[in-house]
Amino acid sequence: MKEPYNIVITGVGGQGNVLASLLVGAVLVEKGYKVTIGETYGASQRGGSVMSHVRISRIQQYGPLIPPGLADLVIALEPAEAVRVLVQYGYQNTVSVVNTRPVHPVDVISGSMEYPSLDALFERIESLSKKAYFVGATETALELGNPILANITLMGAVCGLNLLPIVAEDIEKAVKTYLSSDRVEMNRIAFLAGQQLVDGLGSHCQN
Amino acid sequence: MSLLGLDAPGKEVLLMGNEAMARGAIESGVTVAAAYPGNPSSEIIGSLAGVAAELGIHVEWSVNEKVALEVCAAAAASGLNALVAMKQNGLNVAADFLLNLNLTGILGGLVLVVCDDPSGISSTNEQDTRIYAKLADLPLLEPGTFHEAKDMIRDAFALSRKIGTVCILRSVTRISHARGNVTLGPIPRERIKPFFDPNVRLMALPGAPSHVLVHERLKRAEEILESAPYNIYKGPEMPELLMITCGAGYLFSQEAISILGLSDRVGLLKIGTTWPLPERMILNSLAKASRVLFVEEVDPVLENNVKELYADNNSCLPRIEFLGKKSGHVPAVGELNPGLVIQVVSRLMEAPWGQSGDEESRLAADTLAKFAPPRSLAFCAGCPHRASFWSIKNALALDGRNGILFGDIGCYSLAVLPTGFCQSKTLHAMGSGPGMACGFGVLDRLGSEQPSLAVCGDSTFYHAVIPALINGVHHSSNFLLIVLDNNATAMTGFQPHPGSTLNAQGLPAKPLRIEDICQSLGVRTVIHDPFDVSGTSLVLWDLLQKKGPRVLILRQECALVRGKKEGRRSKVSVNPTRCLGEECGCSRLCTRVFRCPGLRWNPTTSKAEVDEAICIGCGVCADICPVGAIQKEKQSA
Second label for B344, Cα 20 to 30 Å away, from A74, B7, B453, B563? Predict the structure, then answer.
């Protein structure tokens, strides 16, 4: 893994960024890495853009925010948010894993702004990334019965692409330690479903 | 055993800065902890509450910050170690007591953690707690990392016991709400039996004697802190630039020096004991400096204090150019970030950094404008506040006398924005909306014809609204207080409050009902369900025509809490044949005006639709649609 390896997990308030970053961090600390996570809580969560910065190192504890242009991996729970992050934090080697389901901002709902067409949006994400993967995480989560599981489904896809050294057992253990035992099963199922979505693509990735 | 109470010295775990401070308190043998929730401080007491039973300690969400400090002061006066936590605004509430407690000193250990919120990410202001330390002559420590946050709590307790006064720890959002590796220490198991020595008097007296003692305690703190491991210098013997930093500025500065490859030219002096300053160490560094850059968040506190120290000692120091907020090199307000610090150092040292040129910046702005529409803050899908403010808007329009709604602190603060139809006209402090409404409500006797209204949340009601209500009753003020009771301190993470049936530790507690309190004051009190939008508007209109202080409790559980417990309430959908879209004449009432995030406007069909991944099924939009195109079906699960 690149030293340090910088990940931005982005989305809209309520999509479960904080949980996704916590689980990644918890697993990697257990594996001996120094992990720093910076995130936003509170008022800014209500309908706003939310980012978690995850910094992974073998050597030292990094600061809670990634400097501009240094994100190696962008995990986006919402496609327009992927663009927002890539413009500021991406560089020529950034890999993106993007949930395809849009969440319309209130100003789009009210008609004072437009949401970009999805084809053009995905194309722009590709042009801003070294490689971009698009995953229908929300649709899978809806099939599993709860849209909130899109976060863990997307993390399953990221790990299925071999972008992070994490397997389902690690997630189970982290959910048990950092959350509660009764949430293990549904998160395990979502993680495995996410891995399924990128089945066969993982061998192309290198990290 | 939970992670926070894990008895595994030496083990590295991932903890949030706030959890690290809670763990530090546990490792210091804390036995009483109290707070009123407020971001970015809420998880300190929240996480301690989760382990209170297994550790045999008392943890509470107090009614407000002043009472929390008083609860902890009583514990400390009885020889215990007590931890009180709050956000920066909360310190204003507790300040009256703090600025007398400093005069009496304390017997046990009392640590006050204040989490500042630079840029006001979840606050109305970004005030700097460090100024209070100087005002109260109390020692203040500032952690620069998560692990340090834990250790500093331990040393703050030791310092508090040694010098016999409160020790303050100032955290900031990027420490409190960040996570990192923390190495666990041992947990002491012995417990002191609380005993308040009846021969002791903790009495703040006017005049000089106790003030002299305050200065003596601070002097002792300075001697003890001079050797603290939290003040570190890294860099060359004679740096071309000396950066002096603290808090979150430390890790940003360290990374800036490393990215710019300046470690042999730039020195970094990190201060952890911000007040009183480690004077000898700072003077030693200044003796070898010619240019000093201050990197700190919010006010130029280090900057001013170091410059004062320099002025007192300038006869034996070289000529130094001081750069920072005063010189304009660092922004005078707001949060720091690594990009900003890199840019400042890069310019000062003429060290190139891959900053994008004008053309690239223009392209980036263009991409954002086309592909990343901004996200204004909004109430969550199905939030009862949206329905409440919808009814308030309608009732005020129906009344037609330009009624003024005074706002308050909580999720419903957003009612100053379009998501709450811009109904709130003021936003200041906890309880200040009802206080102002009470004042506006006496202006009718001076000729005002405008009705006076205020909103507050349930937790805010207990925290600071009751005195305003009593004032209104006593002075026969004509105002309507609307309590938006969603049965939670929602903004900060759903903590219980005095109206809850369970306390912080999850044990049964006596709930004090808002209606009982209001009725005991003789206030006309009405309770209504805000999801009944037309009924609520009529109740509001009716109450607006009455005199004296009145209370309307709009009671409906927070959508997030209810969603977690029960899942979606109803399946809501738009019937595409009934929805007339642009042809309707409603001017897109559901999406353009009501604008719940659970709805979408489909530009292809020119009709509204429901986003099933977001809608929680409250069904309020079904009542708003003038042609009944939005349908709700109850869901059994």
Answer: A74
